[in-house]
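Task: complex structure prediction.
Instruction: return structure tokens for all chains below.
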Amino acid sequence: MTAPPGSAHPPRILVVEDEPALRRFLVPTLAGQGYQVLTAATAAEGLAQARSHNPDLVLLDLGLPDLDGMEVLRQLRAWSRRPIVILSARNQEHDKVRALDLGADDYLAKPFGAAELLARLRVALRRTIPTEAGDTVVAGGGLRIDLGRREVSLEGRPVHLTALEYRLLEALVRRNGRVATHSQLLAEVWGPGGEGNTHYLRIYMAMLRRKLEADPTRPRHFITEPNVGYRLDLDGPG
Amino acid sequence: MDASSRPILVALGSEARALRLIQAACRMARERGVPWIAAHVRTTAGPSAEDGEQAQVWLQEAQRLGAEIRVIRAPTLAQGLADLARSTHAQVLILGRSRDRWPWARLGHATADELQRRGLDAGLEVLDDPPGAVWEEPPETPFGATLGTFLVLAACTGLAWLVPREGNLSLVLPVYLLGVAFIAHRWGQGLGVLASALGALLYSFLLETPRFSQAAGHWPNLLFFLAMLLAAQLVMGLLRRLRLQAREVQRREVHTASLYLLGRALARSRTPEEVASAAAEHIGRAFKATAWLLLPEGDAWRSLPAPVEGSPLPSPPELSPGLEMGGREGDPLEPLPLGGAFYLSLTGTDRSEGVLRILPREPGGLPPRTWELLKAFAAQIALALERLRWLEEARRAQVERETERLRSTLLGAIGHDLRTPLAAIHGAAGTLLLPGDLAESTRRDLLAMIQDESERLAHLLGNLLDLTRLESGVLQVQKEWQPLEEVVGAALGRLERRGGAVPVRVDLPPDLPLVPLDAALMEQVLINLLANARRHAPGRDADLRAWSEPGRLCLEVADRGPGVPEAFLERIFDKFFRLPEAGEGGVGLGLAICRAIVQAHGGEIRAEARPGGGTAFRIDLPLPGDPPTLPEGAP
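Output:
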């Protein structure tokens, strides 16, 4: 049992997937990790299950036979703030971005391995967002970010960031390992009116990498999801 | 010969009216369901070379519409036609008659009369030119012309007044003759006649002595009047002919030039839209009219350029019967007037390509004598559309052939490359399911193999899917300005997560400009190139470097592998191409995908032998304009 601390029961995961083969793989894999697994083969069934069992996380396939996955996502997000992870076919960046902007927490492109799946689920279930008040410190891979004192250090040496670079870093830290889309980051860091200027974001991301990555061409922390967005990975090897 | 199948014979000269004769004959032949023959008679007098050429054009047009054509030599037109009508058993002979001749010649028809005398066994059909087809002198305002006439006569009288009274009559006469001729030339026949009479009266009243007592009917004056009348008539006739000829020559020159210009513009057109804009431009210039192409699209027209508000298009059922002739779809023989606009069918060699719609900008309609030119325009436009259609069909056929070829290659590749990993997976799973105990190491080996082989399958399918989508145009390139560094980072990260360390030295100058590219696609290119380098030169560092040149950004991935023989440097980008000595591994899609992606970016990719051994893949990406920068005073 790897139930996160503080919860009374093992996390309940609802798998909405119409392919029997994938369900056959997902159910034992998740159950084997101690999760409580519910399954649904259609959007209607999935929505009903979500309402009656209020799962801790929904694993949602975008290609369902009866209803567009985006619509399912919209209906779930209308009442639930629980994490939703999307399963999508590869190379559909547009759909991924739409799903993330609609409030999905993360996505997995098929085919994916068990290790990748479990890592993403752990990240999505964590969601312990550091609050602004208090001495919240996140650290990993040689990088240490003190959100309370607005201080950043790499391998123990303080790093000076401009205000905008810091805001970008902070927005990524608050995602806690989950992917942030370009438009989400632009809205959070640049505010209204920043949309469409994706190249600002790219330039500032390049600056952050130069300051905070050992080798900016092989980023360990500031991971690019091409045509989708970025994620901050502090768990990986430094 | 059976009376009901006797052909219709039409005699064509070189004049423009031949087209109407062709039309009439064609229509009659279709109505009666009989063949028709277009004939041109070369008389011994011999037409000019130019006329002969023009006649040839009409004959070709007739042939295009299904006529049998004959060119015969005969002493006179009538004799040639009579012989031909007899030998072909024609039921009807169609002739044209011009209005452009002296009034007394309009009553009869010399050739027709002669044919009758020769005992023609065919019905005779004589077609007159339509009224208005002949160019008319543009009339000036009656008031201005009359005033001018009086002024000229007054001037003549003044001049004549200067002649001494006892002077010769012959000195006065030419002055009046000149005046009358000028009036006839300038303001036409009517005022010329009036000026003759007035001149005679003036002369007799003002110049004869005693001045006011002479009778107007005195015979020398009458003679003088008649002489002046005749002179005025002659001058009129001569001048009018000269002017007509000059106009005609000029008109032909203009027409030839405008046709040439249109032809050139059409030859350059590569889409129906370009054809339509070339047609609209040239028709607008030559006819002072706005033109549209109506192309059939389902049950309606697609109008190019878009129709203007307030001029509704007639529906195809409304238009088609008017343009159709007999059983044959529309023919560019006669423009169809409908609601202030004219419609011409655009008929190529085998079928109607659409309709040309002309809306004259001036209230008077189209300028006279331009319909032949308009028809020639329509024929050119039709041919241009037809050419485009054939090109499109050829292109489609080419794509189909290519698809067919790809499909057979694909079947061959699938035969081997899909079956091998499937067989391994199937076998390994079967072994694992066998009853009995397997050694833990064997069990793990088999499971690892299942994982590896299924990854290979997924990779192959992904590549096939990518290539298909790239080539069919389903996959749209989403270019955004971004640093190359980020794409390189993403590619290296993904490769490392997939298969461990990537031995590559990266050299990206820090001041490299942003470049517009689709990050996901370009990442795929880099992954394919780097994976190739890792496979062919295991353990040896590859080099990835980039630099900018004016107008482009260059990227190079170079390895220290065995290299590619020179003969294959280009072919390695072909689908399913594998170097002969290459062992197991890829299926020959990776580089094809790279090329498809780079080309979709408007760039180029090529392979070169690397100095010192190995292969260098170089990508040139266009850098259009200035890369965007951060706004001034960015926080």
